[in-house]
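User: Let's play a game. I give you a shape written as tokens, and you guess the letters that built it. Ready? Here's round one.
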């Protein structure tokens, strides 16, 4: 029993080391290496929700991302990060469907475009662009009107939808009503011996009048309908939205059944989860028609600009009380397996440089910025680190941008020969935190690995 419990505990500990290494690899952009480490961690601890969450960010296909996030929710139904990740995947799938629907509409494949847009709206019912383009590929004016009303319910200021509705109303008002014109027919002269019954003359008059009325109606429709269609297109659609004359422009978006009520809000604070990651049927109830399709209103989509955050990796460290002014370089991690025990080891620069832990926080953001340095004859950048005192300042630079920190804690921790739980507690100081801090660490005393010296500093605020 004790052996079984000990084995399970070792597996969880090994999974934790692999998880930290996987997160660090994901943050540094090494997706394949991160994926391998996270899968190994999950083999040792399949119920690790954090490993599933990070794995969703380094797999390649949306269906794999979805499965990882579903695993998180199966283990932790209230996990908001996984819920946000699934919502983001839905919106991404909807965006792809909208794009495909627009392309189909512009190429004249109205039915295919309609199907794609409806599927997109099922994924994201609040996508105004999808509703707008859908209004251009449905068959009947009342369906167009419902789509445009959905746009205005979501975006009351949408000018394309307003113009579309106005054009529909004008087209309805301007629809001509034709009556068969009365036609005067000169009575036929009767020859002697040929009496033509009065009833036959009446039937001929009616038939001739009907025929002339039908011809007039056909001529009127032939002349007037293209003009009405052109008027409708000019009012409702920018010319650039059509690939060729007579082809309705189409937009792609997720779908929802047409309704006069605004669709429910499914946008619940989307968030991207883990490193660079998610962290994405037909049956629309629209009747087909053989009538000439009414040109749709086409809106030119405006690109969404996603701001790129500025990242400040540390490049230089200055500690005035002990005379340190040294460059900071990236320190990578590697996995070692000693006697069946998995260890995570961080490289330390051999020269007189400090090492910024791969995957730890950059400067100026919430998180733990971890920097190591030798206290060793081959490169003792932190040889005098033990002399610093709480209240003294440290300056870190990212290029020409400086960040000031105040030392708050100086800790000396026993390391060599200590049990596993003690070393794990020591390692916790270099893990991610929910506050902004800098952690410096080195060995102590000079030339020995007996102890760990930890210095914690927090940002100085104006």
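Assistant: Ready! My guess for every position:
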């Amino acid at each position: 029993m004790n052996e079984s419990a000990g084995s399970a505990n070792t597996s969880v500990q090994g999974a934790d080391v692999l998880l930290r290494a996987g997160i660090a690899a994901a943050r540094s952009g090494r997706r394949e290496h991160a994926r391998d480490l996270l899968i190994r961690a999950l083999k040792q601890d399949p119920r690790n929700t954090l490993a599933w969450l990070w794995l969703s960010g380094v797999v390649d296909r949306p269906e794999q991302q979805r499965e990882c996030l579903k695993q998180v929710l199966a283990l932790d139904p209230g996990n908001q990060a996984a819920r946000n990740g699934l919502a983001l995947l839905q919106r991404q799938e909807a965006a792809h469907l909208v794009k495909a629907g627009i392309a189909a509409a512009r190429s004249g494949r109205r039915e295919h475009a309609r199907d794609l847009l409806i599927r997109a709206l099922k994924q994201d019912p609040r996508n105004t662009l999808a509703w707008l383009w859908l209004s251009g590929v449905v068959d009947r004016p009342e369906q167009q009107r419902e789509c445009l009303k959905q746009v205005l319910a979501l975006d009351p200021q949408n000018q394309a939808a307003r113009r579309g509705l106005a054009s529909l109303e004008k087209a309805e008002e301007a629809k001509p009503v034709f009556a068969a014109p009365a036609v005067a027919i000169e009575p036929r002269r009767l020859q002697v011996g040929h009496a033509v019954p009065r009833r036959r003359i009446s039937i001929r008059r009616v038939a001739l009048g009907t025929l002339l009325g039908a011809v007039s109606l056909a001529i009127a429709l032939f002349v007037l309908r293209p003009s009405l269609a052109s008027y409708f297109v000019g009012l409702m659609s920018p010319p650039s939205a059509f690939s060729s004359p007579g082809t309705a422009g189409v937009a792609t978006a997720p779908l929802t059944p047409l309704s006069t009520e605004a669709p429910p809000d499914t946008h619940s604070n989307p968030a991207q989860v883990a490193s660079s990651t998610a962290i994405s049927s037909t049956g629309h109830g629209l009747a087909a028609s053989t009538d000439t399709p009414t040109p749709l209103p086409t809106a030119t989509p405006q690109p969404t600009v996603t701001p790129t955050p500025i990242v400040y990796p540390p490049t230089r460290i200055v500690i005035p009380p002990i005379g340190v002014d040294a460059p900071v370089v990236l320190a990578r991690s590697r996995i070692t397996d000693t006697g069946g025990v998995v260890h995570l080891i961080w490289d330390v620069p051999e020269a007189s440089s400090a090492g910024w832990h791969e995957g730890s926080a950059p400067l100026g953001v919430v998180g733990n910025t971890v920097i190591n340095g030798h206290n060793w004859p081959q490169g003792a950048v932190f040889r005098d680190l033990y002399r610093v005192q709480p209240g003294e300042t440290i300056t870190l630079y990212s290029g020409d941008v400086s960040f000031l920190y105040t030392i708050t804690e100086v800790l000396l921790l026993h390391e060599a020969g200590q049990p596993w739980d003690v070393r794990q507690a020591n390692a916790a100081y270099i893990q991610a935190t929910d506050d902004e801090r800098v952690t410096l660490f080195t060995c102590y005393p000079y030339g020995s690995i007996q102890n760990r010296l930890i210095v914690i500093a927090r940002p100085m605020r104006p």
